[in-house]
Amino acid sequence: MNETTLLPLVSPKHLSKQWLEELLSYDLGHSVKITEWTVKSPEVSNGFLSEIGFVRVKFFSSEEKETCPRTEKSVSLVLKCMPKEPNQGEFVRKFDLARHEVDFYKYTKSEEFITFCKKSDLSHPVPKMFWGGQNNDVFTIVLQDLSTRNFRVMIEPEGNSLEQLKCTLSSIAIIHAVGLATLCHHDHYFNFPRKKRTGIMIENVRAGIKQQIKMFAGNRIASTLEAVLTKVVDLINVASRYPLLNTLIHNDLWIGNVMINQDDTTISIIDWQFINLGNPVCDIVTLLFLSGKPSAYQQHLTELLNCYWNTFEQAMKKNNVPHLSKQWLEELLSYDLGHSVKITEWTVKSPEVSNGFLS
C-alpha cells in the first residue's frame, strides 16, 4: 500500500479509528485492524506552536497467516496539528512553518539521509515520521512517541551536563554534515529558507524567551534567559559575525527540543519547524548558551567544540564527501568581497611535497 488518501486533521480531537487504520496500513504496507486506541493531550501546552496528542494503538496485522494464532501489536504515536491559539496559528501559516517541518521529516525518510547516518554510526537522530501532510489551514505530523522507549526531555534547572551536551553536538554535527553532503550533490534539493528572516526571528525569539522565563521562574534557566533577552539581536546575527558554511540547521536548538535516553548515550532532536539553510554556528551557540551548565562551556569549551568538529569531519570522511565545494567557495568569496559571486570554474590541488607539514 504505497499510496494514501489521508488528509491532515484540524486537531487530535478529530482523530478516528478509520484514519488510524489507514495511517498504519500505509506505514506497514498492508492492512491492519485496530482493536483499541486512545488519544490524550499533554498536561502543559502553553507556548507550543502545535496542538499535541499522544496516541496509543493496539491492532492486528493482515500480514499474519490465518492458520497461525494472531498476535496483537501496539504502537505509540505523537500527533502534531495546528495550534489552537489564533495568533500562533497565524504565525505558523504566515511563515510556512508546517510545510518546512513536514518536508524535513520526509527528507529524513530518504535513503540518502538514512544511509549517511548509518555510515556515520548514528542511530536515527530524529523521531520516525509515520506520515505528514499540510495545506494552507491545517497540518498533521505523526511521529514515533519516544517517551515509551524511555526517552525524555531533560531540562536541568542548573543546566545540562557535559556528556548530554556532547551527545547532542555529535548528533547535530551529523545532521549538519548530511545537509551539506546533500547540497554538494544536489544544489537545489531543499526548499527551505536560505537566509535568516531577521525581523521575524527577533520578534519570535523574544516572545519565546519571555514565555520560557515564566515557565522556569525561580531557577538558573530563567536567570540565563533574562540575560539572553537583552542580547537577542546579537544572538540572531551570530551567523554573519562568524561565517562558516551553509547547511541544514535546526534554528531552535536547546535541550527542550532534545529527547535523551536513560544513560545519556542516545538523543533524538525534535521540533524542526524553524529549519533553515544557514550557519551551524547558530545551533552550537544556542545549545551551549541556553542549555549547558556554565562550568561545561567555561571549562570544557575546547572539548565540546572538538567533539562537534571531529564528529562532523568523520561523518564526511565515512560518506566520501569532499570538504571543499563550489557553494563553500562562493560563500567565502561573497563574505570577503561584501557582495555575492558566481563561480564559473574552480580546481583544488595538493602540494607535491607534504611530509612534515602540520596541516
From TrEMBL:
Under Pfam families, the record lists: EcKL
The cross-references to InterPro entries, in alphabetical order and at most eight, read: CHK_kinase-like (IPR015897), EcKL (IPR004119), Kinase-like_dom_sf (IPR011009)
Using the record's annotation, list all stretches that form the CHK kinase-like domain: 141-318
User: Sorted alphabetically, which Gene3D superfamilies does this protein's record hold?
Assistant: 3.90.1200.10
- What PANTHER family does this protein's entry cite? PROTEIN KINASE-LIKE DOMAIN-CONTAINING
Protein name, UniProt field: CHK kinase-like domain-containing protein
* Lineage of source species: Eukaryota, Metazoa, Ecdysozoa, Arthropoda, Crustacea
